[in-house]
Amino acid sequence: MTAFALDDPLDRGPGLPGPGNVLRTAADSIPPSSLVVLAIFSVQLGAGFAKELFAALPPSAVVFLRIGAGALIMGAFVRPRLKGLSSRDWAVGIGFGVTLALMNLAFYEALSRLPMGIAVAIEFLGPLGVAVAASRRRIDLLWVGLAGAGVALLAPWGQSASVSWIGIAFAMLAGACWAGYIVLSAAAGRRFPGTSGLAFAMIVSAVVIAPVGFTTGGTEMLRPELLLIGLGVGLLSSVIPYSLELQALRRMPKRVFGILMSLEPAVAALIGLVLLGEFLHAQQWVAVICIVAASLGSTRMSRRRE
């Protein structure tokens, strides 16, 4: 899962040497559609490596490692300013951070119980719900029905031991939090300059999830090799895709960007197959395709209305 960043989290300003300028120079030579695909693969690789950590740590501890790493990196480069914030600014920023923490915690709990492709497909119902809620066209009922059919095909009606009701519930909770994340992200963008709102939210998120992470992970979480993998997950899941998405958005229409992002559940299923050996049944692949098609259709119609 990624955020649709509006500014480069590694950007330190024109003329200043820094990782943002290096990444921008390298990214300018790559087609924007390829940047989006790279961002999607980066996020899903991060999720795949995080899932492998579940053998050593509980999901809540892995979430803390991922969010903590992302907060440290973004906080170091962005350095959000706290002086001069109004009470409403604080409320939006803290709400944004709490939602981010809950979204990641619910997603990782779902990931520990479901194949990657299924967890990401169900979570995608959140952004789909936001898009449909803003529409008044009857055709959007088609996308709702298609997505609902996909979830119905994934539900464990006794035919699939690889899918659990608890996992589906966590994935749907993650989707609901993602919908809230989209709304709060827009609100934070109006109140915080650049990506300082996202950096502020990630710091809040790390603080919120820290007690749970330390309680469940304990001293085992401090093993150097696990900390290193957690840092890699933070880079793959947050910093790298945010930067790639920004560069792509600067050079391509948002409609095309949204369509490409709709492919994320299918990429998650592919990464799960290759990296984790998660084989989906034909019915599960059909379900993932239904949700991807619903997301694609909703994205195309919403962009046409805009």
From TrEMBL:
It holds the Pfam family EamA. The keyword Chloroplast does not apply. It is a multi-pass membrane protein. GO terms for cellular component: plasma membrane. It comes from the Bacteria. InterPro entries: AA-Vitamin_Transporters, EamA_dom, EmrE-like. Residues 35-154, 166-297 form the EamA domain. Keywords: Cell membrane, Membrane, Transmembrane, Transmembrane helix. The keyword Metal-binding does not apply. Its main location: membrane. It is found in: Cell membrane. SUPFAM superfamilies: Multidrug resistance efflux transporter EmrE (SSF103481). The chain crosses the membrane at residues 56-78, 90-108, 114-134, 141-158, 164-184, 196-214, 226-244, 256-276, 282-299. Belongs to the EamA transporter family. This is EamA family transporter. The lineage of its organism: Bacteria, Bacillati, Actinomycetota, Actinomycetes, Streptosporangiales.
